[in-house]
Amino acid sequence: MVGKLKQNLLLACLVISSVTVFYLGQHAMECHHRIEERSQPVKLESTRTTVRTGLDLKANKTFAYHKDMPLIFIGGVPRSGTTLMRAMLDAHPDIRCGEETRVIPRILALKQMWSRSSKEKIRLDEAGVTDEVLDSAMQA
């Protein structure tokens, strides 16, 4: 009787292990296929959309885009309509606009602070960071 119980328990463990191995194998294969799909080049033909490019409703052009394409940054000076532009762009379902940043004004303020401080100006000059280098960096 005890031998039969051990045999049934061993058989149950074998069945459970087999089902588990089969289940994990299936998921591993699905994962492998997803990785292969991601590593293949993007086919832009399947990601085309039609965009209206003018006021004429019939003047539509087809542009290819994909989620892995580079981001576009739009900037402007204060009070030039950039907030309105961001709100209008963000209203479109295929466009995502982030919050307005204060990066550029902060960088410009740092540059002004460095140029006003004679001690900092000497340090920057000794490091080879001249006004031309800073101006070039600001323009980039």
TrEMBL record:
Keywords: Transferase. It is an enzyme of class 2 (transferase). GO terms for molecular function: protein-tyrosine sulfotransferase activity. Pfam families: Sulfotransfer_3 (PF13469). GO terms for cellular component: Golgi apparatus. It catalyses: L-tyrosyl-[protein] + 3'-phosphoadenylyl sulfate = O-sulfo-L-tyrosine-[protein] + adenosine 3',5'-bisphosphate + H(+). Its EC number is 2.8.2.20. InterPro entries: P-loop_NTPase, TPST-like. It comes from the Eukaryota. Catalyzes the O-sulfation of tyrosine residues within acidic motifs of polypeptides, using 3'-phosphoadenylyl sulfate (PAPS) as cosubstrate. Belongs to the protein sulfotransferase family. This is Protein-tyrosine sulfotransferase. It comes from Pan troglodytes (Chimpanzee).
